[in-house]
Amino acid sequence: MSANHITPPLQGPWVEIDLGNLCENFSLIRSAASNSEVAAVVKCNAYGLGLAKIAQTLADHAQCKTFFVVYAEEGAALRNALGSREARIFCFAGQTDQTLALFEQAKLIPVLNTLEQAKHWADHCSGREASLHVDTGMNRIGADIDDLAKIASLKNLNLKMVMTHLACASDPSHPLNSAQREKFIAAATHFPDTTLSLSASAGALMGRDYQFDLIRAGIALYGGAPFDEDDTRIKPVASLKAPIVQLRDIAPGDAVGYGATYIAQKPSVIATVAAGYGDGYPRNNSPVGIVSINGERAPIAGRISMDFITIDVSDLKKRPEPGDSVEFFGPALRIHEAAQTTNRVSYDLLTGLGGRVDRRYL
Predict the structure, then answer these.
(1) Strand pairing class (290-293; 296-299)
(2) Which of 41, 184, 228, 266 could form a disulfide with 68 if both were Cys (CB 3.0 to 4.6 A apart)?
(3) Where are the beta strands (DSSP E) in 44-156?
(4) Other C-beta atoms lying within 10 Å of the C-beta of residue 63
(5) What is the rounded CA–CA span in Å between residue 60 and residue 356?
(6) Catalytic-labelled residue, pool 119, 150, 155, 258
(7) What are 216-244's pLDDT values in tens digits?
(8) Using an 8 Å Cβ cutoff, are 91 and 108 in contact?
(9) Distance between CA atoms of 233 and 238, rounded to whole angstroms?
(10) Which residues, at least 6 apart from 191, have a Cβ–Cβ distance to it below 8 Å?
(11) Cβ neighbours, 10 Å, residue 249
């Protein structure tokens, strides 16, 4: 057994964020839904890629003027990042007593989700703009269909937008999509002359029947396919990489990693990479995960630990060296494939990126 030892300083993982591809993905949605306004969903720190830089780029280079987050605190941070740029900022969670002042200070717009929340906004923020989320069959969050007449009758409630969310848009053929659409059209009759928003990324690409007035583009902006199958029209935005810090030659019968779950069946070469579940790479991606090294694929070998991942590079045409970068997803290994290989989705690979992963904007 032999090893090439670590040469300090030890460099950890990073994610390269292609802002050009971000804007091209925005343009793809805008072209597909040419009769709709396209808004950007930048919740959860812009899907893990950095709220301020992502929103500033979309505002400056894609002329995006409407953004969605979940919480008022996110909205205030977004307003601060956008500075003097003109923008509407919607908060999916709506308001509470504790956040009313923040809604006013940061000029945020609530997405109301219940009759009680609608009454609260009308009572405390008379005449100020609001939006309403209607539950049409997802049974997660949103106003009940039976409450819509009462909401519509509230005095001083200034609703400018009505929206819902498709539960099964990842499968365009699913019958719930059309059922929700019909329920949404019926619900909207309570609120004439308001902007209507049915769809996120997937619905925008499903055709005009699902587009309505405003699209809430999310995962497709960041390089993930919104469907169960990959969509190569969507360009990769995030590339998660980390350096090889050690190579080790092992003999048949040698074990690798915690629990000795990986046993070499032949003379093998193991590369240790400076990334782990502490950086947000899923621990259960071993032993089925794959990576790309210098354009070749290699499997994860053994359990993923907090700070390191071991890769079996025995079958690569060219033996890698310490310092070579390993791509966990990106242009060489599309995020949809990387996620699907381990029965995950691109959403959690992005939003799970840890705080010590260096964000590098291209």
Answers:
(1) antiparallel
(2) 41
(3) 66-69, 88-91, 108-112, 129-133
(4) 11
(5) 28
(6) 258
(7) 999 999 999 999 999 999 999 999 999 99
(8) yes
(9) 15
(10) 132, 148, 152, 159, 162
(11) 16
The angle formed by the CA atoms of residues 90, 204 and 94, to the nearest 5 degrees, is: 20
Q: CA-CA distance, 21 to 8, in Å (whole number)? A: 34
* Bridge partner residues of 243 (DSSP): 325
Cβ proximity of 247 and 293 under 8 Å: no
What are the φ and ψ backbone dihedral angles of 201, each rounded to 5 degrees?
Answer: -55, -50
Q: Per residue in 18-68, pLDDT tens?
A: 999 999 999 999 999 999 999 999 999 999 999 999 999 999 999 999 999
User: HSE (CB half, 13 Å, CA atoms) of 296?
Assistant: 14
Largest CA distance in the chain: 78
Following DSSP, what letter does each residue of 152-176 receive, concatenated?
HT-TT-EEEEEE---SSTTSTT-HH
User: Which residue, chain included where needed, has tokens 């007449």?
Assistant: 149
CA distance 239 to 13: 10
Share of the chain above pLDDT 90, in %: 93
Does the annotation count 262 as an active-site position? no
Catalytic one among 43, 47, 222, 241? 43
3-state secondary structure at position 279: helix
Active site (annotated) includes residue 160: no
Name the amino acid, one letter, at 306.
M
Q: Which residue has the tokens 């940061």?
A: 106
Write the CB contacts of 312 (distance below 8 Å, at least 6 apart in sequence). Answer: 262, 268, 269, 270, 271, 298, 299, 300, 301
**For residue range 286-318, what is the model confidence (pLDDT) as tens digits?**
677 899 999 999 999 999 999 999 999 999 999
Segments in 112-267 forming alpha helices (H): 115-124, 148-152, 175-188, 201-204
Q: Which amino acid is located at 332 in the chain?
A: A
Q: Cis check for the bond before 322: say yes or no (omega within 30 of 0).
A: no
pTM of the model: 0.93
Question: Among 204, 285, 246, which residue's Cα sits nearest to residue 36?
Answer: 204
Per the CB < 8 A criterion, the answer to whether 271 and 244 are in contact is yes
Task: Specify the pLDDT at position 91.
Answer: 98
- Of all helices (H) and strands (E), which one includes residue 3? strand 2-4
pLDDT at 5: 46
Contact of 348 with 282, CB cutoff 8 Å: yes
